Structures are given as C-alpha cells and as structure tokens.
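Please check this:
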Amino acid sequence: MFSNKWVQPGAPRGSFHIRPISTEDISRLVVIDAASNPSSWNHAQFERELEIPFSISRVVHLHGEPVAFAVMWQVAQVAQLLEVAVLPEHRRKGIATFLVEHLLDVARGRGCVKMELEFRKGNGAAESLYQKFGFREVGYRKNFYDDKKDSDRVSSDAILMEKSL
C-alpha cells in the first residue's frame, strides 16, 4: 500500500492516485499508449509485461479513471524507465512529473544506483521532464524506434539519458 505521499498535494478534486497496473487496466492503457506513442503497445504486450518479474509498472488514476502509466525494469542495480504515457487531455497537470518522481523513489528503495531511459529525438516535453530531474544525455541511437505514420513505417532516433540515484 502506498502512503499519502502518493496523493498529489494540491491536485484537482479527486487527486492523483497511483498503484501497480493490473489486468483490469490494460484495455484503457492501450488507449493511453496509442494516444501518446507512435509505436504503442498492444493488449498482449501489456499482459506479457505484467508477467515479467523485474518489471515495475504503475497506473495513475484521476477522478477514478486511468489517465497515465509508466513502466520500469530493474536489472541488477539499474532501473530502466521504458515508458511514461499521459492522455493528451491530462498533460501539463504534473502527472508525468508525479510518475517519474514515484519511480525514482521506488528505484532507490529497491537499491538501484542509476536510472536509464531513452526518448524520441525531438520530444521536447520528455527532454524537459527528464532534465528537471537531473538526467543527463549520454548517447544517441540512430533509427531506434520503428514508428507507424499513416500507412507507412518510419524510423526515429533515440536520445539516451541517465541519472545517478
């Protein structure tokens, strides 16, 4: 059970609540991911993620409805932030900040010494979010993401960042 620390102070009536993702959340998470990510996960991918022992996943509810999620892996003492997604109509409310802060605390609590992540080059919102937490750029991956764009497939580059915990 999470402490009241994970009820966002000053949040709108109903506030943010965070908990581990369950199978009941998956249909809604597919929608959230599709609205946020050109190479979004499908239902089966979310189901498989819930079975991975080193996967740590969280869903954020606002007014009782899932509006965001994040997935992180713990590999030895390294946390790898795989995805943070927020419904477009709920962005700019501090939800992504809330999720990243929570997962940084979880990673520290589990003995991680570093968090790594990557995001699409040109995603200024992601870059600003991670810089706010002190992540620094450590690399670049050409054609890392295989994205869907209309009926075509295109590749996007990734920026790699990390932060000592």
The radius of gyration is 15 Å. Residues 1-14 have pLDDT under 50 and may be disordered. The chain is about 25% helix and 40% strand. The beta strands are 16-20, 55-62, 65-75, 78-86, 114-120, 136-149, 152-164.
